[in-house]
Amino acid sequence: SARSIPRDARLTPEELKAKRLEAGLTQVGLAGFLGVTARAVQHWELGARKVPSWVPRLLERRSDTIGGKLA
After folding, report:
1. What stretches of 1-71 show up as alpha helix (H) in DSSP?
2. pTM
3. Which residues of 34-64 are buried (b: 16+ CB within 10 A; e: fewer)?
4. Among 30, 13, 11, CA closest to 69
5. What is the Cα–Cα distance from 57 to 23, expressed in whole angstroms?
6. Closest CA to 10 of 38, 46, 44, 35
C-alpha cells in the first residue's frame, strides 16, 4: 500500500488494544484474525510480551476484510 509499514515497526500494547477495540473485536476475535492464541493477544496488550513486528503488517494487509479498521 502507499503507506507501507516499515519491517521493524512495532505497535505498543496500547496501540494494539485501541486498534482492536476500534474494529469491534474481542481478544479472541483478534487472535482468530491473526492466527494466534487469545493468550498471545492478552500478553501483547498487557505488555508481558512485545507485539511482534509482523502484526502491524498483517493488520494492514488484512484490514480490508473488516472494513479497513485495523490498518
Report:
1. 13-22, 27-34, 38-46, 54-62
2. 0.78
3. bebeeebbebbbeeeeebeeebbebbbeebe
4. 30
5. 16
6. 44
Residue 54: all three cell numbers together: 509482523
pLDDT per residue as tens digits for the range 1-56: 445 556 667 899 999 999 999 889 999 999 999 999 999 999 999 999 999 999 99
Cell 511482534 sits on residue: 52
Distance CA 35, CA 11 (A): 17
Residues 17/64, Cβ–Cβ less than 8 Å: no
